[in-house]
Amino acid sequence: MRSIAYRTVFFSFIGIFLFASLDALIVGRESKSDNDPGNPNINKYAFSMLFSKFQKVVNQPLKNSKPVDIFLCGDVMLGRGIDQVLPYPSEPVLYERYMKDARGYVEVAEHKNGPIPSPVPFAYVWGDALEELERIGPDLRIINLETSITKSNDYWKDKGINYRMNPKNIPCLTAANIDFCSLANNHVLDWGYSGLSETLETLNKSHIKSAGAGNTLAEAESPAILEINSKGRVLVFSYGTTSSGIPLSWAAIEKKPGINLLRDLSENTVRAVKEKVNESRQKGDVIVVSIHWGENWGYQVPRSHITFAHQLIDEGGVDIIHGHSSHHVMGIEVYNNRLILYGCGDFINDYEGITSYEQFRDDLALMYFASLEPGTGKLIGLKMTPMQIKNFRLNRATKADAKWIADVLNREGKTLGTRVQIHADNTMTLQW
Ligand SMILES: [Zn+2]
Predict the structure, then answer these.
(1) Are residues 17 and 91 in the same domain?
(2) Which residue, 253, 252, 318, is CA-closest to 290?
(3) In the chain, which end has fewer C-beta atoms inside a 10 angstrom radius, N or C?
(4) What's the 47 CA to ligand 1 centre distance in angstroms?
(5) Residues lying with their CB under 5 A of ligand 1, a single-atom ion
(6) What separation in Å is there between the alpha carbon of 350 and the centre of ligand 1?
(7) Residue 242 is assigned to a structural domain of this protein
(8) Top-confidence residue, 57 or 209
(9) 356 — pLDDT class (breaks 50, 70, 90)
(10) Do 398 and 375 belong to one domain?
(11) Residue 63 lies in a domain
């Protein structure tokens, strides 16, 4: 058996050698006849061709040399005040303890930063982020959609805060070419089960994929499958936990609609996620787990989140953990060459002018651009572009604000083993 194996390896190598030599000679001859007569480096070139051919055979995971580029961000809250300035505002009635009219949030924001034109064009809220998306050109755009899209009046009682955007404002999402919305969060059922159905239907009609909520448990736990031309598939799973404020009763069960809720972060749960991933995974797929977890404020990453993220990577074969719920950015980790964003922070909200947690600067938002090695899902690089939410739109952050975010990421990244380098244009790159 062993001698057969040796013989196979030996003849394979000879085969590669002959093929590469022939190939290199042909290339060498072509370059000679074109514009490089008598190039003394031809032999050197032929040898390097041979070597790179051999390397390509050995490095199987690189089936495509172009990285898979994914844009990710945190909470996109298009309801309430934001919905009121879009072309088709919902009925403004609110059932909050202090605010009874959604237009009140517009007034508070205008009081702080000046008038907001109304109605604004659908693309308005994305502001400078659109230009940045265009400049970097990611293959996929992934967000956590923290609102229901519905005309339903069936608000969830005793919840306190209920976000909805009129379905006629859906061009707001398509204007930014959003490919995927994570729905396992604490606002998708704010306007009842009819609100959830209409959200799913509206996204579907607009060809925006989603995961994490559904009309049945099977629907809620199914991943979104996103195909990237010539680069393969990206599967996005969406999960939520009660620590982010999701009521336990929102969990989808068999035929009951709801969200894909994790009861805990135990080893049994890791196994259950792993099984779900394995049911859908094909060789070479990139796996993203988008998860709504943890409190709204505070930088401390719970030990249970770290352990769960590591286990999903080690045992579940997950390539990106896309964490959200915190209203501000949290520390970043790279574990076994896989990216963990513990908390992406808010990306679009109507909190302008609301005072109480200013020290966390929830007006500062971050665009994450992750590059992964195709075929293996390993992180090649992470670029970030800071923005500021002002006048209900994203604006490029000032130098001082960019430095403020970089300082937070460096401070919080210390125990996680990461740092960020800030560049002249205020963008950042992760170092690990
Ligand atoms: Zn939330």
Answers:
(1) no
(2) 318
(3) N
(4) 57
(5) 185-186, 325
(6) 14
(7) yes
(8) 209
(9) confident
(10) yes
(11) no
